[in-house]
Please model this.
Amino acid sequence: MERRHFLSSLGAAAAASQLPLRGDAGGATSRMTLLHTNDTHSHIEPFGPGNGQASGKGGMARRASMVKQARATIPNVLLLDAGDTFQGTPYFNQYKGKLDFELMSKVGYDASTLGNHDFDNGVDMLLEAMEFAKFPFLNCNFECKGAPALGKRLTPWIIKEFPGFKVGLTGVGVDFKGLVSTENHKGVDWISPEETLKPVIRQLREVEKVDLVVLISHLGYDLHGDAIDDLHIAKLVPGMDVIIGGHSHTFLDQPTKIQQDLGETHIFQVGWGGINLGRMDFALSKGQVRAASGRPVPVSALAAAAG
Amino acid sequence: MRLEISILALALALSPLACQKAMVAPKPSSTISQSENPRPAPQLLQAQTMGVIQDFLDDPGIMTILAPKQAEIKATFDLPLCACPKGLFRGRNGEENLLGYWVTDIMRARAALLIGRPVKFALTNSGGLRANLPAGQLKVSDMYGVMPFENELVTLEMTGQDVMDAVKQGILHRGSEPSSGVKLVLSGPVDKPEFLITWEDGAAIKPDEPVTVATTDYLYNGGDSIPALKKGRRPFTTGVSMRQMLLDACGDLAKAGKPLEAPALGRYKITPELYNAARDHKLGH
Model:
């Protein structure tokens, strides 16, 4: 393979691409990397030709290779998904989401959440597919009184501990109304995430005393209206450092920073279909983000082709 | 240029030095309350270069699981359908949804065959058409890409007023939903738009005229918020899945030796300003 010289440090990439990177001359004691996907929609294989800029990109096997190498070279990594794993290719029609979750487990996802399309075959079939998932599904705004089996499978929040610091993660889903037929979410009710997130964030920050609060959201980045989306929720519920978003299939070049009452929230979403792997990096001191940056990383064979 | 950008991003993804410039001498621990400890002012960090070799081959562990499934999928889903020389696209940023026009034309024709009388109007949802059709020889998998859902074709009995309301609600609630059988011109100011909806031949739609309509069970059952469809009487769920309907239509074209071609432009005429307002739910009623 041809050897190339690349700008490769985060600082280099940030400077070269005009990416504003917040930094502090002193104070950072730990670093954390979040890798993430959203709305993969059963795109287990790369996009074929004729798909414009997506052609040749994506694919679980290549994503797995990238994640594996990242984990081998970066100390503290979490791999997250923001929902809508289901629906979109014959793989879903054939394997009903089981293969998606099996492969995600093999890739090593640490957590996911549920999107509206994950209910496309109803709650029972969702549960059948979830049997193949070896990672938690984070959600704090679905009330599952009529679907207790799903309720048991959902986790409102988790803590991930790393040497010297802790990361708290939670998840929220989008309103079913107009998106999921009542039959397909039978027994599961949507509650406004503004209401349900506040105590969770308080718990993570004040009781668990995590250093980084991450929301995995399937609300959508900007719904162009009054509906609660990522841009709204960041301000409505202060205290979240990061929102890993999905639902709106938004291709962001870099995280959006929102000022809220307790600091800044970094919102990121990387399109759909597994075209990109999102990456966000944080330099942390106790309870504070000292520096942060993020980029979509194309899941592409370009580097291999260069050889 | 595109190669360079991508490689830069790959390097960013995997460099063990990532964030290293941000890792500086530790300060004493702060409390968790950010409000009590405001974050420091932003500061752009220095660039540096290093050599990287990167090679993202398919992960063998994943391929072990995937390979037999791929073979199963290909056996069915790689079967050829028909030619589509120029592709068929949903349109972006207010462009007309030619794929949606084609699908709704097929819905009308198939529904008419099923119930044995003319179907004057068909409506589907743009959000339910999940992919474009690429240019070239279409495969079965392409149609699964367009219509992955298990939705069915439904016929309804409505009035002319219901039809106009359904088209209007498709604009107001969802930006635009494709249909067959009518023409729409949306004009005027954002706060007081004028909806001119006629039959496809330009004839006026009489509010009280009975109309047989084709749609999907998803829309009829309230998906994507087009309440006018709920006024439809005598709903008939045909048992024909939307996807099978499209597969059959492609099969018919292949048998006839014809390519799949895009319907004509001009069915919906919406100015960019009004389209953007509709998308942002800022269009007046």
